[in-house]
Write a structure and sequence with these properties.
Number of strands: 4
Distance between the termini: 56 Å
Strand content: under 5%
Number of helices: 10
Oligomer: single chain
Helix content: 55-70%
Number of domains: 2
Order of helices and strands: HHHHHEEEEHHHHH
Structural class: mainly alpha
Length: 284
């Protein structure tokens, strides 16, 4: 994989799909994630999208830094809402005991429910976005946006923003390795926090120098002189693109109808134990 982008070459069905089809999938997954207020729907979506990532990019679905970040995000949201969310009323029992932290209170099931719901929502949307950028060539990303009517300059700006993430991550690892070679100690968490200060300054300086070089290169190539630059390759919808878009459209419409008829499938007000985080309590 090119370490300058998230794109990983391949021949999966998602690699062969049009960029606009994958944007439609992102919209569909986002809609489904926020239609219902429970952790089950976004959790299922996260698992399904992760499987799609694994089918399309193989081990990269596990090894990329973003997947690890999603897991940390879910944990932090559950932890924060479990202690600090004001809707929390039912204490969560850990081996028969409540978990209380001074100044924060007792960990609650309602807070955990809230944190899981939003954590899996963020994860589902982030994973489907990762599927998009890891199976779509950077030039196709820009062409997809321009086909949807987005100005070329904005599409290019989005592309550059996406490319800066892996570049900055790679340079941060180089700086950390150089600092360790010069005697930087990271034995404890506090040592790692203190190590962020000498990491931040050179990373910012390098990023500013890169932006200046990129601006000069774009200006030398007359970037922006034409609002409709001639594309090197043409992109067109194929039969599979229509099938995928129609499939997600049908699923989205069915979900909206279910939402209208059955409500948000929210059982946060009837929590009795850990099992109620993913299953509603059965009324006797």
């Amino acid at each position: 994989m090119n370490n300058q982008t998230f794109y990983k070459p391949g021949d999966s069905i998602f690699h062969r799909c049009d960029s606009r089809t994958k944007l439609a999938i992102i919209v569909g997954v986002t809609l489904l994630s926020f239609l219902f207020f429970n952790p089950v729907v976004p959790a299922v979506l996260s698992i399904v999208v992760f499987i799609f990532n694994f089918i399309s990019t193989g081990r990269y679905a596990f090894t990329n830094s973003l997947t690890k970040l999603f897991i940390v995000t879910i944990f932090l949201l559950v932890l924060i809402h479990g202690f600090a969310n004001p809707i929390g009323k039912t204490p969560a029992l850990f081996f028969g005991h409540e978990f209380t932290i001074p100044f924060f209170g007792t960990f609650s099931l309602e807070g955990a429910y809230f944190g899981l719901t939003y954590g899996f929502r963020v994860t589902a949307i982030a994973l489907v976005s990762l599927l998009y950028i890891s199976t779509t060539h950077p030039t196709e990303i820009v062409k997809g946006f321009t086909k949807l009517g987005v100005p070329y300059n904005i599409g290019f700006m989005i592309l550059m923003s996406l490319q800066l993430i892996p570049i900055s991550s790679r340079e941060a690892q180089i700086i950390i390795s150089a600092q360790k070679a010069r005697g930087l100690v990271e034995r404890t968490i506090w040592d790692k926090i203190k190590g962020l200060v000498p990491l931040f300054v050179p990373l910012v300086v390098i990023s500013m120098e890169r932006m200046e070089t990129m601006a000069m290169a774009l200006e030398a190539r007359a970037f922006g002189s034409s609002s409709k630059p001639t594309p090197l390759y043409k992109v067109n919808f194929s039969a599979k693109d229509f099938v995928i878009v129609i499939f997600f459209l049908v699923i989205s419409v069915a979900a909206v109808v279910l939402r209208v008829k059955c409500g948000g499938l929210n059982w946060i007000g009837n929590m009795h134990g850990w099992s109620n985080l993913f299953l509603p309590a059965i009324r006797g």
